[in-house]
Specification:
The chain is an alpha+beta fold and about 200 residues long. Helix content is about 25%, strand content about 15%.
Length: about 200
């Protein structure tokens, strides 16, 4: 076999391996103590925000909630209309300082919620990016293609109220749809009660 073909094959294999690891990292979570101010007593499945600077990142529990959501109410059948939103944060980006370039950023966004009926917590994860941020992600990781999973938000520029509002509406929609399931008001992906909380 030609040595050039072997080198090309090895390089292509390594690029695919790197791409697979990077994409699987988008959906990983770890068991750690809950973020500050979350109101959770025990450990929860969350990914801790990372900071690149010397100061710790500001998380949503440290700030006023920037959007209006309906008040939590119990229906006549004893079910709640929505989960409680406890915290939100980006994996790398500080909520106050924002990204270096608001028109070209990408980061993982997390939203921690609690089901009022059984106090179960769940962490939702969204990949948030601008169109220029997607190109930046591909350039930074030297990727020829980028596969985006279901929980992806594309925005024109950094806008915390818009990002949070979009994620909250998505969560509330899936919460309302779960009323028809065998486990009413269960957070998506929940099949049994949690031991946390």
């Amino acid at each position: 076999m030609d040595p050039v073909k072997i080198v090309i094959f090895v390089v292509a294999f390594l690029l695919l391996l790197l791409l697979g690891r990077k994409l699987s990292a988008f959906s990983e979570s770890t068991m750690i103590a809950p973020p500050p101010g979350s109101g959770i007593d025990g450990p929860a499945i969350v990914a801790a925000p990372r900071t690149t600077g010397k100061e710790p990142a500001v998380v949503g529990a440290d700030l006023p909630f920037p959007i209006n959501v309906p008040e939590i109410k119990r229906d006549a059948d004893g079910r709640y209309n929505r989960p409680e939103f406890l915290n939100y944060y980006f994996e790398e980006t500080d909520l106050v300082r924002g990204p270096e370039n608001p028109a070209a950023f990408y980061d993982d966004f997390y939203l921690l919620v609690r089901d009022m009926e059984n106090s179960h917590t769940a962490l939702y994860k969204y990949f948030v990016a601008t169109p220029a941020g997607l190109q930046k992600a591909m350039d930074d990781e030297h990727l020829p293609a980028l596969y985006l999973e279901d929980q992806t938000l594309i925005v024109s520029r950094w806008d915390i109220p818009l990002i949070l509002d979009t994620a909250v509406k998505d969560i509330m929609k899936s919460y309302a749809e779960s009323k028809n399931d065998k486990n009413p008001h269960a957070l998506p992906g929940d099949d049994e009660p949690s031991e946390t909380g």
